[in-house]
Amino acid sequence: MALCVYLLAAAATPPRNPHPHKGILDKYERRPPSYYGMRVDKGIEARLLDGKAYVSKVDLPNGFRRTIAMKDVDAPPDIVFGQIIDVEGYPKKIDGVIGTRIYRDYRTLSGIRVFCAHYTVRFAAVVAESYVQHEIDPFSRCMTFQLDYSIKSDVADQVGYWYVEPLRNNRARVYYSVMSTVPFWVPKMMHGAVLDLVAKRSTSWVDVESRKEYAAKSSRWTAAFGAKMRKLKSRF
């Protein structure tokens, strides 16, 4: 029995080869979107109110790119944030995510959840693996992520940020920002196409999955309320 437990623990532990560095890019902190220049002007506001996503891409030195995306979602912020932090559900929700597995998970004394996950992702003909550390602040509905530098990933570096802002009428505004590059072995002529695909997938899935969950919960609430009212009427 002890041997079986040991083997299971070993199987759940990722390989120990470290990443070549401890981080090239500046890490995101759990701060409001405005701290990172994500401000909604009149043009962006009009686009978001029209149900469209706003996406901005900035090429950085050494092949990195920063992608910023914003999207209004017709679902409560807690449901929206719940979709974002459900990393193990990504393969069923995000096109191109083949697999995810959490291999470390704990909470700090201040209530921040920290977990690391192994991702296998496909971009067209490219399949890449990465080991990512996430930090979740449930109070501000913010999640930051970066590579787990204790384990080698296929990408040179990656840092990112999610933030969910409550809006009126049970709606939410999603802010997303990521700085990343593609694996070094991907042909240079494919870099732009791969990064464009990443930007395209950024927030669209959050909108779809959040509205789907909200509709399902609303249907259950309506059914439960109807049953309760019928029960009350039967007493008179």
UniProtKB/TrEMBL annotation:
Residues 73-201 form the Coenzyme Q-binding protein COQ10 START domain. This is Coenzyme Q-binding protein COQ10 START domain-containing protein. It comes from Prymnesium parvum. SUPFAM superfamilies: Bet v1-like. Signal peptide: none annotated.
